[in-house]
């Protein structure tokens, strides 16, 4: 079992945001810990880069306050590794740095930080900066959870390299079932579709949608919005929804008194599939499909595929108006 599930679920996120402070200087930790604790945050601490990566994966904090300069693994490398892992890539990172040169501040933002504060640390400034980013993160989390509850799964994909940065539990299940992939790998067909969408952003109309079929079920993908830097390719929020025609097949069977297998065969005839196609889908030979179809013809009182499909389509439109061929 993944230890991050146990620790993350044990934290009281309903009443308190979780903050991970990463700093190797005890005085800095003490000042920030006390200020955040008094403000109602749940505070976790790490004193090295290695400990920060482990703690972040275990607890999945809502925000990370990260010291830039630490012995061993510095904050820049910690940020890069957090952003490279699908489980932690969504967590906002605020750098704490005494380096005020522009190149260092730019480096902090380039490796994934959303903001920075300069040392010596002023707790009120840190709280103000955190409040801005936590509000956005909290709103996105609530939106994603609500979408999941209504069957709309979401993922975030980084356009530059196609990495899957974030996914809801429902999205994880659907991608594994339809594509056999797990984060941070994004299915190749999804990456190719995203690049096609991005190449057409300057064209009028809605970006094209992607549909993956799995038997009588299909998984649709819709490009929702860009997250982060709008001047670059950026990260993109994609909404997925699974639609199943199982109810349609059952309705066909009941309407024409067909067996489950005969109803499936007629369903795929309506979809325009050949006997060979249907055999491949159902795991049967074309000859077996032909025999099922002959019995369907008898029960419907027709002699051709076209007539059977037309009769079935007419009945489906009455019973399942939302059905799409």
From TrEMBL:
GO terms for biological process: regulation of DNA-templated transcription. SUPFAM superfamilies: C-terminal effector domain of the bipartite response regulators, CheY-like. Pfam families: GerE, Response_reg. Keywords: DNA-binding, Phosphoprotein, Transcription, Transcription regulation, Two-component regulatory system. One of its GO terms (cellular component) is cytosol. Residues 251-316 form the HTH luxR-type domain. The keyword Oxidoreductase does not apply. Residues 18-134 form the Response regulatory domain. GO terms for molecular function: phosphorelay response regulator activity; transcription cis-regulatory region binding. The modification 4-aspartylphosphate is found at residue 67. This is DNA-binding response regulator. The lineage of its organism: Bacteria, Pseudomonadati, Pseudomonadota, Betaproteobacteria, Burkholderiales.
């Amino acid at each position: 079992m993944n230890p991050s599930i146990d620790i993350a679920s044990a934290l009281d996120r309903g009443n308190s945001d979780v903050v991970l402070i990463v700093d190797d200087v005890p005085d800095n930790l003490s000042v920030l810990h006390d200020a955040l604790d008094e403000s109602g945050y749940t505070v976790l601490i790490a004193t090295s880069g290695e400990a920060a990566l482990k703690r972040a994966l275990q607890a999945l904090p809502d925000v990370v306050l990260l010291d830039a300069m630490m012995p061993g693994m510095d904050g820049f490398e910690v940020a890069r590794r957090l952003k490279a892992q699908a489980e932690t890539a969504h967590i906002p990172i605020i750098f704490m740095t005494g380096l005020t040169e522009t190149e260092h501040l730019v480096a902090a933002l380039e490796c994934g930080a959303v903001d920075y504060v300069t040392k010596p640390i002023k707790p009120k400034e840190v709280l103000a900066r955190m409040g801005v980013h936590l509000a956005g993160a909290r709103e996105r989390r609530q939106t994603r959870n609500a979408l999941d509850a209504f069957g709309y799964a979401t993922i975030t994909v980084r356009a530059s390299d196609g990495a899957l940065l974030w996914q809801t539990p429902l999205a994880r299940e659907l991608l594994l079932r339809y594509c056999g992939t797990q984060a941070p790998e994004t299915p190749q067909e999804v990456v190719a579709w995203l690049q096609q969408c991005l190449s057409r952003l300057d064209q009028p109309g809605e970006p094209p949608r992607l549909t993956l079929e799995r038997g009588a079920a299909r998984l649709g993908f819709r490009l929702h919005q860009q997250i982060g830097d709008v001047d670059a390719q950026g990260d993109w929020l994609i909404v997925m929804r699974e639609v199943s025609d199982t109810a349609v097949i059952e309705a066909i069977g009941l309407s024409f008194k067909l067996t489950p297998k005969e109803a499936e065969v007629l369903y795929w005839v309506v979809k325009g599939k050949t006997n060979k196609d249907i055999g491949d889908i159902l795991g049967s030979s074309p000859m077996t499909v032909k025999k099922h179809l002959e019995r369907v013809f008898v029960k419907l009182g027709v002699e051709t595929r076209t007539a059977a499909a037309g009769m079935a389509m007419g009945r489906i439109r009455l019973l399942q108006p939302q059905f799409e061929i």
